[in-house]
Amino acid sequence: MKKIFLFVLLSITTFTLLSGSCSAKVYTVGDSDGWIAKEDIFYEWAKGKEFHVGDSLVFNYDPSVNDVTQVPGALEYQFCDTSSPQAVYNTGHDVVTFTEPGYHYFISSNQAQCTMGQRLDVLVVHDPSRPIPPPPPSKILPSSQIYKVGGSKAWSVPEESEYYNKWSEDKLFQVGDSLLFEYNNEVNDVLEINGELEFITCDPTSPVAVHKTGHDLVKLTKPGVHYFISSKTGHCAAGLKLRVAVGQLIKDLTFPNVPKKTDLSAMDRLTKWLRTFRSQPHH
Q1: Phi, psi (rounded to 5 degrees) for 185
Q2: Which residue in 269, 277, 232, 219 sits closest to 252, CA to CA?
Q3: Of 61, 3, 53, residue with least CA distance to 30
Q4: What distance in Å separates the CA atoms of residue 25 and residue 111, rounded to the nearest whole number?
Q5: Which keywords annotate this record (predicted)?
Q6: pLDDT of 112-154, one tens digit each?
Q7: Distance of alpha carbon 123 from alpha carbon 170, whole angstroms
């Protein structure tokens, strides 16, 4: 009975799961057509829908000829670039649940099919009536730090284009730390963006988050590389952008024996951080 019930639920285009006053929806991508290569079908399908944290997408397709590749940003989506996927699904009946707000991008790894239109981008918003559960206690850092971005210069157009790279490269950012962005009306905002391509090209079209208070405190909740820019292209091009490498909680770290490198790219800075931490005495 349980299998029959689940099959009926997933065959419906959308349904609502009730849990108290909270609800989540499941959308079958492309409805009865499923996940196929067809021009503009998914743009039209997504238009008018409002996706929330907690909602899910169901991708139905033939796994022998297709898959679903989630990519990090708008440029990868536009150019059907699968070189750095966030996730790859290939069961033929994939259920993807949204756990974070922001833009989410899905394409076929078959570039010809992607170019023909087999790609989907959706904006996911956080509905306050559906609160996001807090992280488990093991992921909360008790002694977190707040870093004022840019130091005395704060978040402003720098005289030296590499100013913010130099500001961040010697700092040990960890999960649980926060960045404090302070700025005036001339700068106007802080955009957190998805990936390296958006960062390099100062692309503000698909931000993960937008901050505009002039005194923005951004908590670093996940390890990896985080990217921040100004929405003003001229300011960003002049160097008003920040890339930070965030390390895992100390108790969760493992330290690979990596060779010394001189290229301080984002991931190299993270490696440098790990190497420095390993070499320091701990009590």
Answers
A1: -65, -25
A2: 277
A3: 61
A4: 30
A5: Disulfide bond, Glycoprotein, Signal
A6: 899 899 999 999 887 666 555 444 443 333 457 889 999 989 9
A7: 35
**Residue 93 β-bridge partners:** 60
Tokens of 217: 């405190």
CB atoms near residue 215 (< 10 Å): 10
Biggest CA–CA distance in the chain, Å, is 68
Helix or strand run (H / E) with residue 2: helix 2-11
In angstroms, rounded to a whole number, what is the distance separating the alpha carbons of residues 235 and 204?
12
DSSP symbols for 16-44: EEEETTEEEEEEETTGGG-S---TTHHHH
Q: Which amino acid is at 244?
A: V
Q: Where are the domains of the chain?
A: 23-125, 146-246
Task: Classify the C-alpha dihedral 75-81-85-91 as positive or negative.
Answer: positive
Contact 103, 121 (CB under 8 A): yes
How far is it, in rounded angstroms, from Cα 15 to Cα 146? 42
Quick one: CA torsion of 244, 100, 213, 166, rounded to 10 degrees?
0
What does CATH list as the number for 146-246? Answer: 2.60.40.420
Q: Same CATH topology for 23-125 and 146-246?
A: yes
Residues 16-52 have pLDDT tens digits of: 333 333 578 999 999 999 999 988 899 899 988 999 9
What DSSP element (H or E) covers 276? helix 266-279
